[in-house]
Amino acid sequence: MGEKETSRLEAFSDGVFAVAITLLILNIGLPEALLRNLPGDKDLWQALGSEWPAFAAYTVSFLNIGIMWLNHHRLFVHIKRVNTALIFINLMLLITIVFLPFPTSLLADYILSPNDHAAAVFYSGICLFMACCFDGLWLYASYHNRLLGKNGDTTAIKAISRQYLLGPLFYLLVFGVAWINTILCVVLTFALALFFALPSRAASSLVAMKIPANIVNRENEQIEEQEL
Q: Is residue 117 a contact partner of residue 178, using CB atoms and an 8 Å limit?
């Protein structure tokens, strides 16, 4: 399969991303009883203010899906061929993304319950699985340049690999935090989304400062062996 099939995969993925990000807004709304009586400004502002957990969950999930779409596009700048295995991994990623509105709704309902962490654990668990699928997509495609272009930008490819090196571990950390503090889980998920929004070279520089040099060097050697 060549670039034509890659374009079809990207187009299908874009559609799923668009549906998932649209479904998020369905979780936001005011009580029907309140709207039926057409409340005054004061009551309406109070009602809108009380919905801040839904707004917060919506913002974090919108950012997560949007940046996941951005990075998906970045990957397919380098991925020039597809095969059945890559399509399957991509489908696993899309299944998770289109499912995200449901745990987002649960998170919004329980974000103010300090003793109830199941919703946060469920939400962060879905994000962890999503990160693993995304990493799996890139690792499979880039292994020995399996599906990458022959004249690809090796510097950019290395930067992407370094940026995603600890991605699942970061989300695993957030998953652990979710068992203890829901608000902190949401904040860390938001921060991770911003980190992965960075261009791969800038983000990989931040990662490199936090990873022992021998680990980074080993990763670079593996990538160089793949290029050979």
A: yes
Strand locations in 85-221 (E): none
Q: Under DSSP, is residue 79 helix (H, G, I), strand (E, B) or coil?
A: strand
Give the domain range for residue 145: 3-227
Total-model pTM:
0.80
Beta-bridge partners for 148: 79
Q: How many domains does the chain have?
A: 1
- Which is it for the CA torsion 101, 160, 154, 140, positive or negative? negative
Express each pLDDT in 182-221 by its tens digit: 999 999 999 999 988 887 654 445 545 544 544 444 544 5
Q: Which residues pair with 79 in a beta bridge?
A: 148
| Helix, strand, or coil (residue 148) | strand
Which amino acid would we find at residue 199?
P
Instruction: Mark out the alpha helices in the chain (DSSP H runs).
Output: 3-23, 32-36, 41-50, 52-78, 84-99, 101-110, 118-142, 154-163, 167-178, 182-197, 200-210, 213-227
Query: What residues have CB less than 8 Å from 75, skipping those under 6 apart?
Result: 137, 138, 141, 160
